[in-house]
Amino acid sequence: MKKTIISAIAFFIILAVFTGCAGSPAPSAEPENNIVQVNQEISSPEPAKIIVPILLSETKYQRMGYVDTKTVNTYKSGSSRLIQSTTYDNAGVVLETASAEYSNNSSLLSWYDRDNNLLKKKKITTDNKGNVIETILFENTGKQVSRSLYKYEGDNSKKTKWEIFDSSDILLGYNEYIYENGNNVRTDSYSPAGVLEEYFTYKYANNMMTDMSHYNKSGKKISGSIYKYNKDNLIASEIIYKGEKSIINEIIYEYSEEDGKRTETSIIKTPKGDVVEIVEKVFAFIEKEQGK
Amino acid sequence: MRKENTMKKISALIVLISIGALVYGNENAAMWTRLYNRLDTIEYKLTIMRSIAEQEGRELIPVILQSLTETNSARSSISEITEKRIYNQLQKTSIKKLGELKALEAEEEIYNALVNSEDLIIKGEAITALGRVGSTKYIAELNLMLRNINMRLYSNKNARENETLAYALVTAFEKLQSEETYESVFYASSGWYSPLSGVRERAKEALKIIASDPSEILAGIMKKDSDFKNKYLALEAENNSSAPDEKKGVFASAALDEGITNKPGNIIEQTDLSNIRLLACSMIASSSVKPPEAVPYLKEMIFSNYDINEKLTAISTLGTYKSDEAVAALSSFLRDQNNRKSAGMTQTIDRRAVIAVINALGNTENRAALEEIMVVNTIDWSTAVLKAAQGAAEKLK
Lengths: 292, 397
What we know:
The complex is a heterodimer.
Chain A: H1 2-18, H2 32-42, E1 49-63, E2 66-75, E3 82-88, E4 94-102, E5 106-113, E6 118-126, E7 132-139, E8 144-153, E9 158-165, E10 171-180, E11 183-190, E12 196-205, E13 208-216, E14 221-229, E15 235-242, E16 246-258, E17 261-269, E18 275-289
Antiparallel strand pairs in A: 1-2, 1-18, 2-3, 3-4, 4-5, 5-6, 6-7, 7-8, 8-9, 9-10, 10-11, 11-12, 12-13, 13-14, 14-15, 15-16, 16-17, 17-18
Chain B: H1 2-36, H2 42-52, H3 61-74, H4 81-100, H5 107-116, H6 120-133, H7 139-150, H8 159-176, H9 182-189, H10 199-210, H11 215-224, H12 228-240, H13 245-261, H14 267-286, H15 295-303, H16 308-318, H17 324-342, H18 351-363, H19 370-376, H20 383-396
Helix pairs in contact in B: 1-2, 2-4, 3-4, 3-5, 4-6, 5-6, 6-8, 7-8, 7-9, 8-10, 9-10, 11-12, 11-13, 12-13, 12-14, 13-14, 13-15, 14-16, 15-16, 15-17, 16-18, 17-18, 17-19, 18-20, 19-20
């Protein structure tokens, strides 16, 4: 069961990395309980089937109706394996494409410009549970730009450490993750010599993260975020602030469903209420065999 | 119900991971910001900036802006070629990312990079980024740049470089949606650019976005520009715009005036003027608002020595009116044809025009049109003409 959950999360993490949405995989926090229930309900006895969400497209609007970029993802038929991702501008001109190659426990992602020149590559390696254990970013020449290593605690797939190495593979710094009741409550950031440089704390209500605070090594608050949820426990808003309470941005989330597809729209606003950007993500759901 | 629950829980999975991306985006941003400031070598900073460009989140803006500010300040003191190349790569990466993140607070530094860099790619990225961040502060300067490129005033650069900049400017103006830039984009749509550059096509599309009602700007171009090709393109841009029908009608009428009053000096100009007249007719015919001031021009087209297709187009356009003036114009042409036929001047009659004018009169649904149609029956016209008159009369009764 846990493998199923992990593979679903791992898929999303790879997708997020692929689409440039994340640089570091999220620790598997307490909301696993929710996912366990999903899989209990939708898995059939033999062979076990699960439903996984796949991101079909991500459209970024500068203003309503005007597309800054639209990224369309294509997948191997009936699979959650991303094959290609193409980003267009408002006129439908291709700006960038990305493609993926898979081997047993790793995927190699390659990005190209509109003239099909290779821009960069990224290799993502997972362990047998589906946890991302290493990502390496390469220049178009094949030279390493940076490398991240991730470590997990025992069998429960909770990320405990993230290390970053430079192009010469020298350690630049690392994060350590601390858990309470299954939730990541604090992340400490260290220099290569092990000196604490800054830290983050997280608060939860009903296992849903409600508050993130970022402090410098002296304990002075640098920034923070407050998360609110709607009646379906979907994130409804995020308020991002600097220092104790100087609001920088607010992000409002809206959801809709049509033809079995889910659209998540996030609207990023300035404190004055001006819209900075609108991001629309469309997800579909596919059924796949557990572990495949 | 089960399916609904399942979907809800899958949503929870999506949201869990979305939250993960958001929350740990903060950690990423903090980590990379710290690493960027750890060492001072330019090679190191480029490596870190490339990794920063991989991340998402507006928390990254301060460190990227800091990097751009530093490289802008250091520009004048760098002379060594390899070092300059690394600075340029660093600037290009930071400018592109600031554009992606819609960092309006970076507009000044992005503009500094544009004007102070000699690197074409940086200039192109800076222009694109100014559009993406929604910067209106430097519109006048950017507009002047496109105008000068349109006019080939930057003769020290090669055409390909100018095309690259023009394309970036057009796309930036499309994003900024400022009417101030409309005219320069219009001239880019008819400029010297090669088809391969895509500048003209992109500019044509951008015109539809930059101004929903460009009638006033285009009327100025129609009046002042002596190039008939540009007059035609102005009419085409008006037609493609979202201007109200009423304004399009008035514009088409003014275009007919230009198309009729101006005399061609060669075959190309003759074609351009004909194209203006035909497009103006098409706009009036398809419009729900019929400009009365166009009727005298349409009448002139019918009576002038234009190509038969133009005559037929003008006749059918008048047939889309219901006014007494339009009926009078059509009736006067039919009267002229009736008189010629009665006088036996058959060599000057084009039967296609006679049938077209009868049909057009029928289409006006104005009973005043009946008078001249009835005269047709008293003359020895061919069966086809008489049949057309019968059909038109039926429509009008």
